[in-house]
Design goal:
Helix 4 packs across helix 5 and helix 4 crosses helix 10. The chain folds into two domains: about 180 residues, Alpha-Beta Complex (Quinone Oxidoreductase, Chain A, domain 1); about 140 residues, Rossmann fold, CATH 3.40.50. It is of the alpha/beta class and about 350 residues long. Strand 12, helix 6 and strand 13 form a beta-alpha-beta unit. It is about 30% helix and about 25% strand. It has eleven helices and 18 strands. Strands 3, 5, 6, 9, 10, 17 and 18 form a seven-stranded mixed sheet that branches. Strands 13-12-11-14-15-16 form a six-stranded parallel sheet, sandwiched between helices. A three-stranded antiparallel sheet has the order 2-1-4, with no helix packed on it. The protein is globular, with a radius of gyration of 20 Å. Belongs to the zinc-containing alcohol dehydrogenase family.
Length: about 350
């Protein structure tokens, strides 16, 4: 089969490798249909490199079951499936409590020996699969995992009906958070970014107000739009030092800040922002991946439910659809900032 093997920073090669084989009774072989490029894949490509040279990376995908182990009961060959790519240990204290996102030895496919989805076939445990209902396309299903990450954050933030929510950073997780905030009952959603192209998509997906941080004073604009009270919940989904600081100055007294964006460098901030935690008695939370009990959790069942109802959409996020052979070229374009993009989907098999 063809697979994208990752050898080092800016070094991806499409090579022929062996199709994975059933080894354990709960193994399943999935034929990859559509795979998404995650922000963490981009960071690996440009900054951190592979866990093991030659690994097959990628972890957001959907596919068709082609072979199952002897004890597999939940799926069968021919089934269309969503794939949970994380591999909790199920043994640590956090896992025993059903807090799989906090697993003390959490692994994910696409790192090291656990082969990822930028390939024609993937082997994974049956408990990582959810059979797709009719009406959800493979492309939409490839967006289920990032949608679950956003959902996990919304559950963590305890958004309530009538809340005003600000989302800083309108990449895929931010755009999905906007949709989830609306589903959770937020009546005013403020999207914040520095790219008008992204804010346009945010508006289409439910943002009531859009603020370009390059053109306007974000904090003053949010005050203006909230009668100088502030928002109920601020969701930081960009991971930049500026937005990490601004997020603390947007909520009302007693409000909540949810940190969802991954910073790939040190974060420093002026005291005036940090002091808001104390002076406004803020609740500050982090969120990581998207799992709960029973694994993979309510994030997954809720995501599929709202995708089926077409209240949670992936296609408006998709700016590029490419073939597996085009993956190295696309990563290089991203690295050189030659293109505007949101979610990039790799169509591995369109039959």
């Amino acid at each position: 089969m063809k697979a994208a093997r990752f050898y080092g920073i800016r070094d991806i090669r499409i090579e022929d490798v062996s199709i994975p084989e059933i080894e354990l009774d709960d193994d399943v072989i999935v034929k990859v249909k559509v795979a998404g490029i995650c922000g963490s894949d981009i960071s690996k490509y440009s900054k951190t490199g592979p866990h093991a040279p030659g690994e097959i990376f990628g972890h957001e995908f959907s596919g068709e079951v082609v072979e199952v182990g002897a004890n597999v009961k939940n799926v069968k060959p021919g089934d269309s499936v969503a794939v949970s790519p994380s591999l909790p240990c199920f043994k640590c204290e956090q896992c025993k409590q059903g807090l799989f996102s906090r697993c003390e030895d959490l692994k994910i496919i696409g790192n090291g020996d656990a082969g990822g989805c930028f390939a024609e076939y993937v082997k994974i445990s049956s408990r990582n699969l959810i059979k797709l209902p009719e009406g959800i396309s493979y492309e939409t299903a490839a967006g289920i995992e990032p949608a679950c990450i956003a959902a996990h954050g919304m559950y963590r933030a305890n958004i309530e009906v009538g809340d005003t929510v600000a989302v800083l950073g309108t990449g895929p997780i931010g755009l999905l958070s906007i949709q989830w905030a609306k589903i959770f009952g937020a009546t005013k959603i403020i999207a914040i970014d520095i790219f008008d192209e992204k804010l346009k998509i945010a508006k289409e997906l439910g943002a009531d107000i859009c603020i370009n941080g390059k053109k306007d004073d974000v904090i003053e604009k949010v005050k203006e739009f909230t009668n100088f009270k502030g928002v109920d919940v601020a969701v930081e989904s960009a991971g930049t030092p500026i937005t990490c600081a601004q997020a603390l100055s947007l909520p009302k007294k007693g409000g909540t800040v949810l940190y969802a964006g991954i910073p790939y460098g040190d974060v420093e901030m002026p005291r005036v922002h940090f002091e808001k935690i104390l002076r406004n008695e803020l609740t500050v939370k982090g969120t990581w991946v998207g799992y709960s009990y029973p694994f993979p959790g309510r994030e997954w069942t809720s995501t599929i439910h709202y995708m089926k109802k077409e209240e949670l959409k992936i296609s408006p996020l998709v700016t590029h659809r490419i073939k597996l052979d085009e993956l190295p070229e696309m990563f290089e374009k991203i690295y050189k900032r030659d293109i505007f993009f949101e979610k990039i989907m790799v169509v591995v098999d369109n039959n």
